[in-house]
Amino acid sequence: MLEEVLSFVPPKKLTYLDLTLGRAGHAQNILKKIKKGSTFIGVDCDDDALIYSKENLKEFDKKDNLNFIHSRYAEVFPILRERGFTGADFILMDIGVSSPQFDDPKRGFSYRYDSDLDMRMDPKDKLTAKDIINSYSEKELCRVFRDLGECHSYYPVVKKIINARLVKPINTTFELVDIIKSGLPRKELNEKGHPAKQFFLGLRYEVNGEIRELTKGLEEAIQFLNPSGRLVIISFNSEEDRIVKTIFKKYTTKAPIDKYHPLLEEKEPEFVALTKKPLLPTEKEIEENNRSKPSIMRSLERKKLAR
Hints:
Elements: H1 2-6, E1 15-18, H2 25-33, E2 39-44, H3 47-56, E3 65-70, H4 77-82, E4 88-94, H5 99-103, H6 129-135, H7 138-148, H8 154-167, H9 173-183, H10 186-189, H11 197-208, H12 210-224, E5 225-235, H13 238-252, E6 271-273, H14 283-288, E7 296-302
Parallel strand pairs: 1-2, 1-4, 2-3, 4-5
Antiparallel strand pairs: 5-7, 6-7
Helix pairs in contact: 7-8, 7-11, 8-9, 12-13
C-alpha cells in the first residue's frame, strides 16, 4: 500500500519515525518525497533488517539526518527521548512479519518450509515456537491457539501435540503441520487456505508478544506525535485491526459530558481520524503482490496547537 502511505506524507521538512523499518521499502520512497534536512529514525528488532536498510538508505545520508535503532517498537520511546527526540511529524507502523523473514526457511515462520520451529523476530530473544510447543501446558496451548490464533478446532490439536511430545520432542515446522492436520476434522482440512495458518499465527504472536506490543506501541506512538503530526498504521488481520480501531476511537472521540458536573464543557478530542473507514489494497496491487491482500490501513492526525 505504498501509494496510500505516500498520500499521507506531507512533502516538507519533518521528523519521520519508521517503527517497523524492515527492508526500508516504504522508507526509501518516503525519504524521496520529504524535503532536504529532514530527520529519519528507523526502528527494528531484527539486526539483519537494520544492516540491510542502512546500506539501502545510504543515498540519503547527505540529504537527511539518518538514525537507526535496534529495538521493539513498543520499547523504543524511552530510547528516543534519551537521544533527544521529543516528537515526530510522521510515524509509520507496518506491523507483522516482513516478507524476507517469511521467506527465510531458517527463521521458521512459514509452514511452507521444513525448518526448525523458531519464529523469533529478534533472534536474540530466548523464547521460540519450539519451546512453546514442547513445554507449555495443555491449558496454555489452548490459550495460544484459541485466543491468539483464533483457531476453531484447537482442542483436538492440542491433545495431539501433548501425546506426540511424550514420544519425542516436536522440532520442525513440518512435524507440527502433520500433527495439526491429524487433529483437525475433515471439514476444516477441505476448507480454502492452509489448515496450519491460524495455529502458526497464534504461535508467532506468543513468541513475539505482538498483541501486547501493538497495544502498547500504538498508544506510545500516538502520544509521540507533534502537533499536525500524522500516524499511519497497516495491520494484517481483523484481530489487529480491532485493536487499532479501538485505540483510534479512544483518541478521536469527544469525551462524554459528566452528568454530575453539567457546567463542564465537552472536551474536544486532540486527534482526528484521517481515514473514516480503513483503506484496503487495490485489485491491481493484489494482482502484483498477493501478500498485500489482507492489509488494512488507518491514519490519524494530532490537531494543531490552538493559538
